[in-house]
Amino acid sequence: MTDPAAGVPDRPRVVLGVAGGIAAYKAASLLRLFTESGHDVRVVPTRSALQFVGAPTWEALSGQPVSTEVFADVHEVPHVRLGQQADLVVVAPATADLLAKAAHGLADDLLTNTLLTARCPVVLAPAMHTEMWEHAATQANVETLRSRGVVVIEPAAGRLTGSDTGKGRLPEPDELFAACRALLDAPTQDLAGLHVVVSAGGTREFLDPVRYLGNRSSGRQGIAIAQAALARGATVRLVAANVSVPLPAGVDVVEVVTTAELQAAVVDAARSADVVVMAAAPADFRPADVSGHKIKKRDDGRTPVIELVENPDILAGLVRDRTGDATPFVVGFAAETGDADGSVADHARAKLERKGCELLVVNDVSDGKVFGQDDNEAVILGSDGAEVAVPRGPKSALAHAVWDEVVRRSGRRNVTP
Ligand code: CTP
């Protein structure tokens, strides 16, 4: 994006739509996040949005004129231009009414006209009461929009407008901003219409009510995989096991603790998934018995002996139980060290064969560096013999490299949102 006349990079153009819900006030913070990081933002509220936050607020914060109507500044043809020129359109909050209009192509104000003319990624962040969100009409509209490549962010659960709580809150502005940035950075919308499942984090196996066996996985890489998929247009279910970083907006999160819970959640979600990425580190073993009370130190100085039993291999089970059309496409991860029996590459190839998945993302953890870090390097092995080295870089870069390999093998093309 370069403006040849000025010789300086153009600022990303964002249209921030605001529909008429109480969460409109949060859009002011989202607007600040965009403007302060160099985005050129036009705010397009609906008429009812102005009942909640007035035009002067939007004009002052964006430094741009604000109108709800197609008949303002007609000589500039804003109802066509805004959508055509935008790099991203985000509507936060999106009401049930706005979702319905967008799904059916209605265009009775500037925002709905802009949604029809946009050829860039479109993000809708719904916020409404739980009953409205769960209504069959709203869910059908969301399904329609997602099938067209629109990113519909899952609402958060928590306190709603009155004293009631439930699903329907607008995610926090910084989470929405992160989801929008990921979309602006995403190469394409080539995962539009796909349902993907990503597991992340490390499972815990309890010895007694307070102690567990666990591992060092933070969940960062799995979360980066989920965010990248969302940004490329997929609908994402994240199965999160004890992750130590914030959960991303826009993905449907199921939280689990043990390997058995992880298995149940992944197998359930995999039934309707096109792709499953097993980035989680499930504990391979669990105590044979879980004590119902805290295990005490003994007076005679003898220490407890803990017998372990093996946990099921979730990844291998997913591959084994696939139907004839070989869906879902399965991606595994492997943290390997070289030893007397072979190099990292030897162990990784053998693991790919053993597991039977399509891709295996291999980290060399000989020096323990991967855990909890912001960057990563890996080799992606394919069951077709491919070997793609991804140099050290942010976990988001590895995430996109993994999706590039998935797309290459599934024959998908760039899809215009
Ligand atoms: N995995 C799984 N279920 C398990 C253990 C691992 O689904 N019980 C998945 C992980 O999510 C990862 C892949 O299998 O995608 C490889 O994990 P890893 O721990 O390296 O493999 P293991 O089969 O446990 O092999 P190893 O004997 O080397 O530990």
List the helices and strands and how they pair.
Layout: E1 2-3, E2 8-9, E3 13-18, H1 24-36, E4 40-45, H2 49-52, H3 55-62, H4 78-85, E5 88-94, H5 96-104, H6 110-117, E6 122-126, H7 130-134, H8 136-147, E7 151-152, E8 156-159, E9 165-169, H9 173-185, E10 195-201, E11 205-206, E12 212-213, H10 220-231, E13 235-241, E14 252-256, H11 259-270, E15 275-278, E16 285-287, E17 308-310, H12 314-320, E18 329-336, H13 344-355, E19 359-364, E20 375-382, E21 387-394, H14 395-410
Parallel strand pairs: 3-4, 3-5, 5-6, 6-7, 10-13, 10-15, 13-14, 15-18, 18-19
Antiparallel strand pairs: 1-2, 8-9, 11-12, 16-17, 19-20, 20-21
Helix pairs in contact: 1-3, 1-9, 4-6, 5-8, 9-10, 10-14
Bound molecules: cytidine-5'-triphosphate.
Could you characterize the architecture of this molecule?
This protein has 417 residues and is α/β, with parallel strands linked by helices. The protein folds into two domains: 9-185, Rossmann fold (3-Layer(aba) Sandwich), CATH 3.40.50.1950; 195-410, Rossmann fold (3-Layer(aba) Sandwich), CATH 3.40.50. Helices cover 33% and strands 24% of the residues. It is built from 14 helices and 21 strands. It has helices at 24-36, 49-52, 55-62, 78-85, 96-104, 110-117, 130-134, 136-147, 173-185, 220-231, 259-270, 314-320, 344-355, 395-410, and strands at residues 2-3, 8-9, 13-18, 40-45, 88-94, 122-126, 151-152, 156-159, 165-169, 195-201, 205-206, 212-213, 235-241, 252-256, 275-278, 285-287, 308-310, 329-336, 359-364, 375-382, 387-394. The protein has an eight-stranded mixed beta sheet, with helices on both faces. The model is unreliable at 1-8 and 413-417 (pLDDT under 50). It binds cytidine-5'-triphosphate (CTP). Cytidine-5'-triphosphate binds at residues 259, 278, 280, 282, 284, 311, 313-315, 332-335.
